[in-house]
Write a structure and sequence with these properties.
Structural class of chain A: mainly alpha
Strand content of chain A: under 5%
Strand order of the largest sheet of chain A: 1-2
CATH topology of chain A: ABC transporter involved in vitamin B12 uptake, BtuC
Strand content of chain B: under 5%
Order of helices and strands of chain A: HHHHEEHHHHHHH
Number of strands of chain B: 2
CATH architecture of chain A: Orthogonal Bundle
Distance between the termini of chain B: 11 Å
Radius of gyration of chain A: 20 Å
Order of helices and strands of chain B: HHHHHEHHHHEHHHH
Strand order of the largest sheet of chain B: 1-2
CATH class of chain A: Mainly Alpha
Mean pLDDT of chain B: 88
Shape of chain A: globular
Shape of chain B: globular
Helix content of chain A: over 70%
Oligomer: heterodimer
Structural class of chain B: mainly alpha
Helix content of chain B: over 70%
């Protein structure tokens, strides 16, 4: 197999992984701090993608689209938290699953009602189109390369935010003892809204960035949401570091599985059966990865709580 | 009889009476709606066993629903084309016989539930929710890429399968088959809940430590319940495939898992007739709201949100009050 193809797929896996990280980071923060499982996180991804596609379509500027995506998803997240989510913190997981499932129905059908069933398209900005030659002679899409860099920068920024700022201290304190930080005078409900809106903005940003390389349509959020669940189950729920490692593992397994499994099956099968068995197994590979991690470590790689 | 028993009888009689009326009024579409409701009720009863009694929030029951459906689709499609499923090491032929299909559907979903349950039940709480969801997706993507049985497009079966002595293409006769299954499953689970096994399962939801202290292994209890639950939902999947004469990967989709859960919650979690009422209300809403607006899921979502936030205990809880602990 040519080395250039493998290198390109490695980069694709990395790009997919960092975008998954943006989704998973919000989910895992919300779960870690508020103990809430939010199925509607995928809807925020969709809100981001639609706002970016619509605003950049109208204004002709990708940057405006990105700003709109961040603003709209953070606003939608804050609204969701204030109206519905904050009634669910003390409820059991079943109520949380159902209420957020109901939110998915409302968001998805609402979006379909406003924008119709046809997908929107978001164009890659002029300055980032085309490809670049990386060291080693690899030609790679400049936009995807930008996604990798942006994703890594945000991961770094998030690490700094959690480890070195006042908000981060409050978030970490909230994870370990909610009553105590409320008693110390931190406005806990404001903190929750901020954390939720932050997670929502990350999801919306991921939606907008990914929206330029796929079509923007209703229901685009849920497959990503479920992959983000796999990511945080692998990484350990509540752990940002786990989400990062998990996201890269899932991203790389997904792309490399699709690349290597069909030829691997060709070694002992005829070509068409190998292609079909290989692609079936490739689409299952990340779930097999998850099962293996769970057998070895039921709380995930970096998880503490069950 | 307690109020709940009277309510159960009335509900089940209504579910039987409406299609019989529709049969004489020559409204076959209503019979089909009632059949759908009864099938969804069976799927919901399956989920209610682990969700209501065991407290296990499985968001992956579409796996079993889909496996039941694919068991029917695969067997019937081979019978349709006269191509055996396998010739070696043993000859396996397709079949159009419902009882055989049901047995295969029960076995397939039972084995899958055993494997998925054995892995998933190592975890609990929110991990369990996400893992069951992820396993459901795994089967979904497998079905999408399995081109031998239609892949993404699904697979049509031209004639409904046979049941000895009945004309299954007659809507009311097919409804009766489904209705008898609903009664069997309903009585079976109602009995199971009252049995020592059911009581222990319920106890393991309330306090795992106490169950362990009296010498019962909660993992085995839960795994057994998960397998039974998966088999019931798998049976519903086989019946659903026969109703539509069509299978597609959407039977495995996470929306299907969510909807099965909606039947249970709308009706009332852990109430033995909750899934029946939930499925009937769901079908009625789909029919009436779906006729009013293409975007009826918005209303369904809003209703669901209201039930979760303000009517804990579902519709049965609203009608009959909360369940008493001691009877």
């Amino acid at each position: 197999m040519p080395y250039l193809l493998i290198a390109e797929q490695l980069l694709n896996g990395l790009q997919f992984g960092v975008m998954l990280f943006l989704m998973a980071a919000g989910l895992t923060l919300v779960f870690g701090v508020m103990g809430l499982i939010n199925l509607a996180h995928g809807s925020l991804f969709m809100v981001g993608a639609f706002s970016a596609a619509w605003v950049s379509g109208v204004s002709g500027s990708f940057t405006f689209g990105l700003i709109a995506a961040l603003a709209a998803s953070a606003a939608a997240g804050a609204l969701m938290e204030v109206v519905v989510i904050r009634r669910l913190y003390k409820r059991d997981h079943l109520d949380q699953v159902l209420a957020t499932f109901a939110l998915i129905l409302i968001f998805s059908e609402g979006t379909r009602w406003v924008f119709g069933s046809f997908p929107l398209y978001l164009n890659i900005p002029e300055a980032l189109s085309g490809s670049v030659t990386l060291p080693g002679g690899i030609r790679y899409s400049l936009y995807r390369l930008t996604l990798i860099v942006v994703g890594l920068l945000i991961a770094l920024g998030l690490y700094f935010l959690i480890a070195h700022t006042r908000l981060g201290v409050q978030v970490r304190a909230g994870e370990s003892d909610r009553e105590m930080i409320a008693a110390l005078g931190v406005d806990i409900s404001k903190l929750y809204t901020i954390v939720f809106a932050l997670g929502a903005a990350l999801a919306g940003l991921a939606g907008a960035l990914v929206g330029a390389i796929q079509s923007v349509q209703v229901g685009m959020g849920e497959p990503v949401l479920i992959l983000a669940f796999v990511v945080i189950v692998i990484g350990g729920i509540g752990s940002i570091k786990g989400a990062f490692v998990g996201a890269l593992l899932v991203g790389l397994t997904d792309t490399l599985g699709g690349l290597f499994l069909p030829p691997f099956f060709e070694l002992f099968m005829d070509a068409s059966a190998a292609a079909s068995a290989g692609s079936s197994l490739a689409s299952m590979s990340i779930y097999i990865l998850m099962a293996v991690v769970l057998i070895v470590k039921p709380t995930g790689l970096f998880g503490a709580k069950g | 009889m307690s109020r709940e028993s009277i309510f159960d009888c009335v509900l089940i009689l209504c579910l039987a009476a409406v299609p019989i009326w529709a049969h004489f009024a020559e409204e076959p579409f209503i019979i089909t709606l009632a059949t759908r409701a009864a099938i969804f009720a069976i799927a919901g009863i399956g989920l209610n066993l682990v969700l209501g009694q065991g407290g296990l929030v499985s968001l992956g029951h579409a796996t079993f629903f889909g496996l039941g459906g694919y068991a029917m689709g695969i067997l019937a499609s081979h019978a349709q084309t006269y191509m055996p499923l396998s010739e070696w090491p043993i000859l396996i032929e397709g079949t159009k016989s419902m009882p055989v299909i049901w047995v295969v559907a029960l076995l397939a979903s039972g084995i899958a539930a055993l494997l998925i349950g054995a892995l998933s039940l190592r975890t609990s709480g929110v991990y369990f929710i996400m893992i069951t969801l992820a396993f459901g997706q795994m089967f979904y993507y497998f079905a999408v890429s399995w081109s031998a049985y239609g892949g993404d497009d699904g697979l049509s079966i031209y004639l409904r399968n046979d049941f000895p002595g009945l004309n299954t293409l007659d809507p009311i006769q097919f409804f009766l088959i489904v209705f008898v299954w609903l009664l069997v499953v309903w009585i079976f689970t109602a009995t199971l809940i009252r049995s020592p096994f059911g009581l222990a399962l319920n106890a393991s939801r309330q306090s795992t430590e106490r169950v362990e202290t009296v010498g019962i292994n909660p993992y085995h209890l839960r795994l057994t319940a998960f397998v039974i639950s998966g088999m019931i939902t798998g049976l519903a999947g086989a019946l659903f495939a026969d109703l539509n004469r069509f299978i597609s990967p959407s039977m495995f989709s996470w929306q299907t898992s969510g909807e099965i859960m909606v039947f249970v919650i709308l009706g009332g979690v852990a109430r033995r007739s909750g899934p029946i009422l939930g499925a009937v209300v769901f079908i009625a809403l789909e029919h009436f709201l779906g006729g009013l607006s293409d975007y009826w899921h918005i209303y369904l979502g809003a209703l669901l949100l209201l039930v979760v936030l303000f009517a804990r205990g579902g519709l049965i809880g609203m009608l009959l009050g909360r369940e008493r602990v001691h009877e």
